Amino acid sequence: MQITRNRYLDKLISCMWDGQVKVITGIRRCGKSYLLRTLFKNYLLEQRTKVENILSFELDLTRDIRFRNPLELSSFVSEKVRGSEEQFYLFVDEIQFSDQVKNPYNPEGKKITFYDALNDFREFENLDVYVTGSNSKMLSSDILTEFRGRSDEIRVHPLSFEEFFSVYDGEKSEAFEEYAFYGGLPFVLSKKDESAKMDYLYSLVSEVYLKDIVERKRIEKEDVLSQILNLICSSVGSLTNPKRIADTLRSREHIEISDVTVSSYIKHLEDSFLISESKRYDVRGKSYFDFPNKYYCEDIGLRNARIGFRQQEMTHIMENIIYNELKIRGFSVDVGVVYSREYNQNKNSVRVPREIDFVATRGGKRVYIQSAFALPDEEKIVTELKPFSLTGDSFPKIIVRNDIRKRWYDENGILNISITDFLLDDTVI
Length: 429
Hints:
By secondary structure, this protein is α/β, with parallel strands linked by helices. Helix content is about 40%, strand content about 20%. The longest helix has 24 residues, at about 195-215. The relative contact order is 0.09.
């Protein structure tokens, strides 16, 4: 079963021979290696690239273990490329397995790393370099530090619903239910029964992702990291902050922990691509709030597994899926805040904040989106639509719903669209 991931493949193709290192990032098991070593390689071969001109190393495999030494890798590649008039492509998969080695000319000095080898490679005009790295050793903060100004980052996400549905044998509604339960990690699709899918997702969270963070960041309070992830997973789309989480841990779990430590652990979860933060944005004031903010999970299947496939509130799950889709489409996503003037019980006029689920921006484009699982009556409709009227601008406004099948625009120009149509039609925004 081959899933065509054209969104990322097209990005790789557009970055060819731009003089930069192409860094493919994303949560583990989301398909980075498949993108590079299968889809992109096939593209190069179709363009008549010689197979021997694609230098490919998989540092997680014993057959390439010698090339974990950056000096060995640099020497081998340089010998192949230097002096040749032909073009070469270098693929290095799982660079977190690369070792740091002593400088043979200065054993007591700074160690030689993979990044030193990359600097050597960039000097060859006939070499185009592509690397992938899992979050265990190559987190987002590392990329910013080590590759600033010298790389193109291609961020890969788990399967979008469109990609998932392209290989799903069934109707849209059935596919969405499956997607909303098991998520979009590609290997889940190969599992034949529900138990196997659940076991795979359970093990990924506890045995791969969390252990990666614990080992890399030398976390002493692994149980606290685990509890923080549990709290975030059980309340996706809800406003929170480190203080609230710390208070909850102290009162519910009797864990003494500081707000600063909670904030640090949340950052580790973000850097590992497990979760994303969406900040609150004052639409008319054009400013951000410090706290509280919202957090969403990179894959809804991992979220469900983390909380034991309980708490299947479709309102929150659907909101998380929409957020992920917007990120996949390249939008920056904030929580919108607008204000209305209303009268309180004492008949005094007060300023009341109203929330827009998503303010999605990309370049000069902006769109406002509300996620509504169902709008059963006029009162609910008014509540969901009111924030749109308070933005003071004419940017597009969309309400994504699960209780309709056909799309339409209301008298105010607001698009009502079903969740599956929204996910399958990227021309909507």
